[in-house]
Fold this protein.
Amino acid sequence: MEKKPVISIIGGTGNLGTGLAKRLAVKGYKVILGSRSEEKAEKSAAELKRALGVDLIHGMQNQEAVRGGDLIILTVVQSAHEAALKSLKEDLQGKILVDATARIKFPNPKPPQPPSAPRRAQTLLGEGVRVVAAFQNVAAQSFADLEKELESDVLVCADDREAARQVIDIIEELGMQAYYAGDLDAANTVEGLTALLVNINKYNDIHHASIQVTGSE
Amino acid sequence: MEKKPVISIIGGTGNLGTGLAKRLAVKGYKVILGSRSEEKAEKSAAELKRALGVDLIHGMQNQEAVRGGDLIILTVVQSAHEAALKSLKEDLQGKILVDATARIKFPNPKPPQPPSAPRRAQTLLGEGVRVVAAFQNVAAQSFADLEKELESDVLVCADDREAARQVIDIIEELGMQAYYAGDLDAANTVEGLTALLVNINKYNDIHHASIQVTGSE
């Protein structure tokens, strides 16, 4: 059996980060939760370990988390996106960065301006990092409850198809369907879809809206 | 019981137009198929009437179709969008126009430039027409086979919520879920989603990809 990659989650103490950490750890992945504050990261990791009864989750300061991980997932709030990338640029070289960022303007979400957040990340980080966009449209809350089946599909965008493939395999191991949906420019629409989901939650009798892909095989 | 609106479908002899006409007619709607060619419209209508055994579908030249309809659905090919709107502008005044247009560049679909096609339609037609974006993401082929349950949800965008409500009610009568997803600017993302679906069909083991909204009530 191939060795599972160590997965580090930057900005990992938020809803999406801790939810992903849980789902990954119960599938046997070693997970490093990263935060700007080492203390906060360690506290979150300790809580998750206690809740799950597994020893696979560790907390570190973001930079250490990147160094310790094979595959890095970025789940910082949108306002911290650029600063986080700049501070982690050197340590990210040679790795896959999964960027979950969706830029949403509240209270009236509009389609975001191109280039997409993951495209901005790729440009800032350079060719040494393979950026993959994923998780923009999932309802973070749905990850938290392990008893709950995950109902959302994940649209995955990347310039590098092989990097996308690796990320899709991991997502599918977590019990979700994942679809390659185009390059990092296409991620602009995936971000926009998050804005539509915010509207759908607001205007229809539905909570935690996400999407599934339908079709025939 | 309220009288059902007469629904005219402009560019109605294509896959989406004839599919919608079938689904509407079996629910008791009177449908006018419009085409630039009256002969072509009449031929399509006659075929559908024969296939369905109902007398509710008529074929007319586009302008006559608009005059005869209470609610107009625009399903012309994207290259004919602007010209069709210009030629029908006067006759559309006072009506609801459902614009199904999604601008897709082949062979490599990218997120389309704003403003959205339905926003362009609203600007061109003026305030006397209430434009509603819908049906951008449905696989036209899925409408044709009446035995087949419709698996795609419909995202509906409009500046006028009441017009959106009327369109949502009709879509739900056809057996689909419809969700109000924002104003006509938001439709730019819905168009982009069509491009993502083209990519999803191309790169994954799936045909006629569309989307469903998931969530909890």
